[in-house]
Design a protein that fits this description.
- The protein has six helices and twelve strands.
- It is α+β, with helices and mostly antiparallel strands.
- The N and C termini lie far apart (about 60 Å).
Amino acid sequence: MTLKRTYTLLTAALLLLVLAGCSSNAEPVTMEPDTFSKQDMAIYKAVNSKERVSYGMSRKDAEKVLGTGNKGIPNSYTYDPGVSVIYRDDKVVSIALRKESQGVYRTARGAEAGMSHAGIKELYGEKYAIENAENYMDYYYDTETRQLVKSSVQELNSLSGEALRGIHMVSTVYDEEGKATIIILMDRQAATTMK
């Protein structure tokens, strides 16, 4: 191999390493308001968006990011700081961010505990926001039609089995100052049965 070719290969390898290192802390892709996809059903560490916990991920892989949890209600674990996860068949079906997670974990869109009601609406959109009370806001996504839906809780409660699992949701709770105290990503079955 000639010296020039060796130099070219080493330069290319170094460039790839530099590019890989620069992208490891890259921010997540910007998502448009009033849209949704399965990528929305995830949280990531604020300091490294590659460290994610996603809906459907195995408990083993989730705990590589979250650490060891404390068992709560059946199938539920809490992790420091301020993350709760419900598992069904050892797979993530609900992820909750509480106040303590602020600055440490965010949703795939960048929402975090402590964010204003208006800030969450700016990220997720207004068209499909369901506000049944002044301190709650939900978004429902039908995985079968791949569309956000504006359904009532009564309509969703009439579903069962796989249909419940096919409705993904973002549910937020706010304090009296309009700041998010809890952000939950889950399927409708987890919301209804905690399983």
